[in-house]
From TrEMBL:
<dbReference type="InterPro" id="IPR043426">
    <property type="entry name" value="MltB-like"/>
</dbReference>
<feature type="domain" description="Transglycosylase SLT">
    <location>
        <begin position="24"/>
        <end position="295"/>
    </location>
</feature>
<dbReference type="GO" id="GO:0008933">
    <property type="term" value="F:peptidoglycan lytic transglycosylase activity"/>
</dbReference>
<dbReference type="GO" id="GO:0009253">
    <property type="term" value="P:peptidoglycan catabolic process"/>
</dbReference>
<protein>
    <submittedName>
        <fullName>Membrane-bound lytic murein transglycosylase B</fullName>
    </submittedName>
</protein>
<dbReference type="InterPro" id="IPR031304">
    <property type="entry name" value="SLT_2"/>
</dbReference>
<feature type="active site">
    <location>
        <position position="108"/>
    </location>
</feature>
<dbReference type="Pfam" id="PF13406">
    <property type="entry name" value="SLT_2"/>
</dbReference>
<dbReference type="InterPro" id="IPR011757">
    <property type="entry name" value="Lytic_transglycosylase_MltB"/>
</dbReference>
<dbReference type="InterPro" id="IPR023346">
    <property type="entry name" value="Lysozyme-like_dom_sf"/>
</dbReference>
Length: 299
């Protein structure tokens, strides 16, 4: 037993050193800084438990109840009134609808009311070490976290996050903090943890940079869809020829059908380019559709 435990500890330590060397080389960080930072990181078993049971595994009907309900809509309308100026300024500067920006923040952190329960360093270290399925991705995000903390002279152990390492009101992964976060309140620093204004501008910038097309459609519920038609981009006329019924005309756009389960029944939506942009935030169809439905409720 002692030999087995010693071997496991040695392997874990060895893997940690390999990760540290890779991060230092790839991100051009001082090896000493990376080594010292990772020496403070801890494995958190709850992190691997949670990532294996994401909300996206729920049926659409159950998932929707979490993010699109009377309480969240009411709080969203209060949020919109409170931050109307920032939301509308972000829409004007980034050409992303203010309701979409608000809805993303509503789904991500309950309009800023969510309090992160984890430490970003521990979460990302745990996943880089133990979540083999996406080890490279979380090692990359761990590296970006260390770049962010090093450049800003922040102790990475003090950065709070979700169990997956997402940071601040908009729940940006560290790489997205570095790429898309903006100083929207113009106070000289980017702060996604304490500045809702920065969060609003950063969400808008993220969607713009990923190709949001202002005034283009996002998704529409359709009838007479079929599983064999899902996943392929087609013209609206082609989908109509194949029997799909649309509630109103959308000629000139390409769409693809997605299928969701609601109380055991198949339901179909036609989704457009902007829907795929939302999925750059979270690759789940259920996530993107929840954002859209919440946004409509805030209009």
């Amino acid at each position: 037993m002692f030999t087995l435990l010693f071997s496991l500890c040695f392997l874990s330590s060895s893997h940690s050193l390999v990760i540290g060397d890779k991060i230092a080389e790839k991100f051009e960080l001082p090896k000493r800084y990376v080594k010292e930072s990772l020496s403070k990181a801890e494995i958190v078993d709850q992190v691997t438990d949670l990532i294996s049971k994401p909300a996206e595994a729920e049926e659409w009907g159950d998932y929707k109840k979490i993010f699109v309900n009377e309480q969240r809509i009411s709080m969203g309308r209060d949020f919109y009134r409170k931050y109307r100026e920032e939301l509308e300024r972000a829409e004007n500067e980034f050409y992303v609808p203010s309701e979409i920006i608000a809805a993303v923040l509503g789904v991500e952190t309950f309009f800023g009311r969510y309090t992160p329960k984890f430490n970003a360093l521990d979460s990302l270290y745990t996943l880089a070490m133990n979540f083999e399925e996406r080890r490279e991705y979380f090692t990359y995000e761990l590296g970006n976290l260390l770049v962010y903390s090093y450049k800003n002279n922040i102790n990475p152990k003090e950065i709070r996050s979700s169990y997956a390492g997402a940071i601040g009101y908009p729940q940006f992964m560290p790489s997205n903090v570095l790429k898309y976060a903006v100083d929207f309140d113009e106070d000289g620093q980017v702060d996604l943890v304490n500045s809702m204004s920065d969060a609003i501008g950063s969400v808008a910038n993220f969607l713009k940079q990923h190709g949001w097309h202002y005034s283009d459609p996002t998704a529409v519920s359709v009838v007479y869809g079929s599983e064999k038609l899902t996943g392929e981009w087609m013209s609206i006329s082609s989908l109509k020829e194949k029997g799909v019924s649309f509630p109103f005309g959308l000629s000139g756009h390409k769409a693809k059908l997605i299928r969701l389960k609601d109380e055991g029944k198949d339901i179909y939506w036609a989704v457009f380019h902007n829907f795929e942009v939302l999925k750059r935030y979270n690759p789940s169809n259920k996530y993107a559709l929840s954002v859209l439905l919440l946004a409509v409720a805030l209009e």
